[in-house]
Amino acid sequence: MNDVSAITDLGLSRRGFLKASAAVGGGLLISFTVPGLMGDARAAEGEFSPNAYIRIDRSGKVFFIIQPVEMGQATYTSMPALIAEELEVALDQVVIEHAPADDKRYANPMLGFQVTGGSTSVPANWVPLRQAGATARTLLVMAAAQQWSVPVESCKAENGVVVHAESGRKLGYGELVDAAAKLPMPGEVALKEPAQFKLIGTPAKRTDGPDKVRGKAMYGIDARPEGVKVAALTICPVLGGTLAEVDEAPAMAVKGVRKVVRTNNAVAVIADHTGAARKGLAALQIKWNEGENAKLSSADLLKNIAEASKAEGVQARAEGNVQEAMSKAAKKVEVTYQVPFLAHACMEPVNCTAHVRKDGCDLWLGIQVPTRAKTLAAQLTGLPEEAVQVHNQLLGGGFGRRLETDFVGHAVEIAKQADYPVKVIYSREEDTRHSTLRPFHYNHLSAGLDEQGRPIAWTHKVTGGSIIARWAPDRFKNGVDGDAVRDACGPYGFPNLAVHYVRHDPPKGITPAFWRGVGHTQNAFMVEGFMDELAVMNKADPFTYRAPLLEKHPRALKVLETLREKSGWDSPLPAGHGRGVALTYCFGTYAAQVAEVSVDASGTVKVNKVIGVVDCGIPINPDSVVAQMQSGTVFGLTAALFGNITFKDGRVEQGNFDSYRLLRINEVPPIETHIINSGESPGGLGEVSTVIIAPAVVNAIYAATGKRLRSLPIDPAQLKQA
To answer: Which domain holds residue 98?
Structure first.
């Protein structure tokens, strides 16, 4: 996924986002697109086909077709706020509609196709949605002024009406939309200055909260098209294996079972309800072709990646002269860090309801890449893409898992063998054992230090499977996976540095994939851990040691300065307790956390408190900023303490939450977040705290025990007192 800095490479302007308006059903339509990513996106006869739009009907309701999906990150609150701010309406006046699967009209402005990920929703839409709202407001004010025969400057919009201050006359937006739709598009419209904001920067209740609390919210798993049946699925337990044979008789004897379906590597039982489907599946005796991975183990994978990491790799970044600086260094330090495979463990297991017919295919699901689901369904059915309809729902967690379409493929293949809609729901065990995985990385870092212990040279060699080569091959360039090497030197200004990448893909059947924060989570753990090592080695305070390397990042320095104060860094702690700090600049946001931990005699780690400071630019909704920092911390802390997908005889050993542990409510520490509003354009936030919590905790463990951990998850056995 691209960093938010990608948008600056396109040379986009406010004017560039806004392209056209048109009358629609007696209302006002404001549309926008992004040149350079999708061209002018014009349809036949010169008509404009927008990538996202707002519409105001005669009742004054604002309808907003939203491109980003909602998977818990409060998109359905932050996106409408951008429109409502400039349009001068309240949040509750904005009605949200899911965007259909359409890359041409609903592409993510930063990434060029329809996708929710990379913490891009707010940064990508910061300008275009405000521009759309401001243009709509301008047209409505112009329409009112024309109707009253008064200067435009004498009118203003407020609370969904246009007011003529001198006479006190008012017209609601609904009364003006027909006239406004006939007006020519204005030139570049002025956007509000931050000091004028009424919604942006102020706490707002989540617009999707009430329906979720009342159980009215519709997730993919809730889809119930007429005539739907339910399928329970089992996939070959050996990754990369295939189906050999199965006797369907035991399943067909179960009441409610309709059909047993075979695919290349799976068996599904279709039934009237979930209970019958699962009972039928359990009754089957299945033989598998286990294939070449039948004896694969985690020990094999570690041995292979360690050997692969000895290669020089492809240079991903170089500044100065590392070789010369290393030769002059007073001291050289070399370390090896590693992070494991990780599954996503979304609260809602992956699922898809499919109805395949001769003339069309409908999909009901929650997915981060609806057009990819549409394309795959078309390929598997032989239908044209326009005959496939994706009904995107709310997502019960994404974290990158729903950037994939493997579960869509299974659902379509199964539904092709039925003449009714089929809902395919992975069990928790199937979801864990056949998840796409954050890659296993085995990285070498080194630093050359001067006489004062300051780093004058830095190298980081990243070894692991490539997500980008598979998921976005056009962005895999010169042998470098751009995501894999992100944050490989942090935000620090080393005078001489070199970053190399060694591509080492796992065996077929193990799929490297995006996971909340991805390359940042891997490399920040290593970089921030190594930085702490260097500070300790030189008997330097970790905050003080980092500061000279951040001269080009004054916002980072401000974050650290604030964090030192807010965390009570300089106050004493009891024996067995320690504090650790970690810093990141990722997705356009600066953030740092201090974790306060204690370690008992058995080596069990307890995180007692987490204090964070974040500068994400202008915070759209401060409450959402805090919530995102909390959720990302819990997600990252879960991985640091427990996350590990391991293999034995070609099988994933973890299944349900008993063996793939999540942080439990009694284990969640107090998480304190302080926001710095720097006034800059917003950065992304959904993945930021996931990036820094693991290194903060590991550095705190060292402060508490004197034991340095260079691999995850945290192993109590290594911390156990003799």
So the answer is: 4-202
